[in-house]
Amino acid sequence: MPWEKSFNEQNAIENAMQAFWEKGYEATSIADLIASTGINRGSLYNAFGGKRQLFTLSLLKYDAETRKAFLAELEALDKPKLAFKTLFDTLVQQAGNNTLPKGCFLVNTSIEIASHDKEIKDIVSQGFIEFEAFFRRGIEVSQTRGDMPSTLNAAAVAKTLFSLVVAIRVLGRGVYDEASLQVIADQAEHLTA
C-alpha cells in the first residue's frame, strides 16, 4: 500500500520554518522538527527527504512570503523615502516583538553560512542581492524625481543601507535595545537626505 500524507505540507513547512528561524539549522534537531510540525519521523522523511530538504523549503518559504512580499509592499508605495523609513521603523519594531523569532531567517542563516551547501548559499545571496537592488531602485527613482540628491552614489548608498538592515537584524537579536536600534534606523534615513 502506498504511503499517504495525513497532514498539510505547507503548514508543516511553516512550523519547521519557525523552528529553524528561532534556533538555526545546526541547533534544530529532528526531535525539534517532529515537535514543531506534529509529524512523526517516518512521515517527515517520506514527505521531505530529511532535515536539509525541509530547511531549504523553509528558507524559500520565508524568502517568498516575508522578504519578497514586504519589499513588494514597500515598493508599491511609490515613495522610496517613505518606503525606506517604513522598512527601518518596522525592523526596529520587530526586534522588540517577543512573539516572533529574533532577526531575519536569511540573515540568521548567513551567519552560519560556512556550514551550508551551495544551494542554501545561493538562496541567501540572491535574497541579499535583491534587497540591495530594492534600495538602489528607490534611490534612483528618488533622484529622478528630485527627492534625493543627484550626487548620491546609488550603488554605494544601497549597499550601506542594506548593511544597516543586517546590523539591525543581528543586533536586534538581544544585543541592542530598541532605542539603540532606532539610532541606526535614523542614520539610515540621514544617508538619503
Fold and architecture overview:
Helices cover 73% and strands 0% of the residues. With 193 residues, the protein is mainly alpha-helical. It has a domain at 59-191: Tetracycline Repressor, domain 2 (Orthogonal Bundle), CATH 1.10.357.10. The model has no long low-confidence stretch (mean pLDDT 92).
Low-confidence stretches: none
As a whole number of angstroms, the C-alpha radius of gyration is 19 Å
**Total beta strand runs:** 0
> Which band does the percent of strand residues land in?
under 5%
Output mean pLDDT. 92
Query: Can you give the helix content as a percent range?
Result: over 70%
Query: What is the top-level CATH class of the domain at 59-191?
Result: Mainly Alpha
- Cα shape: elongated
Distance separating the two termini: 66 Å
Broad structural category: mainly alpha
Which architecture of the domain at 59-191 per CATH? Orthogonal Bundle
**According to CATH, what is the topology of the domain at 59-191?**
Tetracycline Repressor, domain 2
CATH superfamily of the domain at 59-191: Tetracycline Repressor, domain 2
